[in-house]
Design a protein that fits this description.
Length: 355
């Protein structure tokens, strides 16, 4: 896929009138500063789909679909980002250079690609290990937590072996250079010992970006080691302030509300339960998009996470609810338990501004 500079993408965006573009697909009517029409992403009889040219955004109050002119085309036409840019550039009369990138930018883009490949390869390796005899304890752990084979597959769960350079040697054998591995978040280096795995003897949770590409991992130690949970460090491909666990699944769920939980296991368990929660506002039960934090912000869902949540809300959901864990019980065991979920105990509340 060709890559274009931010400036060029901005130029295409500003020369594309979002209302014009959308009205090529949806019949729109002007109301105040916005246009309204029937949402193309869910079935409805009264228009709740809005386009606001001033903000260059579209948003559906019914299903929560929202974004800019590029994401509209990506969603409607199933385009990649590059295809959306090219289509709009053509319409707006912006010439896209064939070779936009300097050699340095090209190198950086190749590096990024290589880091994504290394993380994907690691994910595949961990996945395989979980299902080998080496992974027996981790597999037993996941099963004890009530996860089905289907759920484990869906979330790509795995296991990192006991040897401290197992993955390192595997990736080297696959042709990954130290120069790539040192920036992958998977390996740390010391003068004496050389490459050493960041994760070993852990149940592994691949963290994927919105497109489902593995960008990092969370690992829970087997046994008594410290720390109990370990996450990949931030890397070129893993920006903790811009990613939520489960976003690639949540974005395709046509549901207006979002349930935010703290941990990976909470997200996975709630998905397996096909989680339904009674909203305080209306009595109707509905399935929520379920997301977890990839980093624990200070003062849970405050400050740093706030901005991200507002963005997520604008793009994906009408309201965000937060699953909070009372200190005295383990919500996961509670959710996965035999008895029905008591929504009063899973304290949920609207966090961000209601739309
Ligand atoms: Zn909609």
């Amino acid at each position: 896929m060709p890559l274009y500079s931010e400036n060029l993408i901005e130029e295409v965006r500003s020369k594309s009138n979002i209302a014009d573009v959308v009205s090529g697909y949806v019949k729109l009517q002007k109301k105040g500063n916005s246009y309204f029409g029937l949402c193309p992403f869910h079935n409805e009889k009264t228009p709740s789909f809005s386009v606001t040219p001033g903000k260059e955004m579209y948003y559906c109050y019914g299903c929560g679909a929202g974004g800019d002119v590029f994401s509209f085309l990506m969603k409607y036409e199933n385009f990649t980002f590059g295809e959306a840019v090219e289509t709009l550039a053509k319409q707006a009369g912006v010439t896209l250079p064939v070779k936009e990138f300097s050699s340095r930018a090209k190198r950086e883009s190749d590096k990024r690609q290589r880091l994504l490949e290394a993380n994907k390869e690691a994910g595949k390796y961990f996945y395989m290990l979980l299902r080998s005899e080496h992974g027996a304890a981790a597999l037993a752990y996941f099963k004890k937590r009530g996860l089905s084979d289907e759920t484990m597959r869906r979330f790509g769960l795995g296991y990192s072996d006991k040897f401290s350079d197992d993955l390192y040697r595997y990736l080297k054998k696959q042709g990954y250079e130290d120069e790539v591995l040192k920036d992958s978040g998977l390996v740390s280096y010391s003068e004496r010992g050389g490459g050493r795995d960041k994760f070993w003897n852990r149940a592994m949770f691949p963290i994927m970006d919105v497109r489902g590409k593995v960008i990092g991992f969370g690992g829970r130690v087997m046994g008594d080691g410290e720390p109990k949970y370990l996450n990949s460090p931030e890397t070129v491909i893993f920006d903790k302030s811009r990613n939520l666990y489960g976003l690639h699944i949540a974005r395709t769920t046509k549901k207006p509300q979002l349930l935010l939980c703290e941990g990976y296991m909470d997200v996975i368990a709630l998905h397996q339960k096909n989680y339904k929660l009674r909203s305080r506002r209306d009595a109707e039960e509905s399935l929520y998009k379920i997301l977890g934090l990839t980093a624990k912000p200070r003062g849970f869902v405050k400050g740093a996470a706030d901005e991200l949540m507002v963005q997520v809300q604008a793009a994906y959901a009408k309201a965000i609810m937060v699953a909070r864990t009372p200190d005295d019980w383990d919500d996961l065991d509670y959710i996965m338990g035999q008895y029905p979920v008591d929504t009063n105990r899973l304290e949920a509340f609207y966090n961000c501004r209601k739309r």
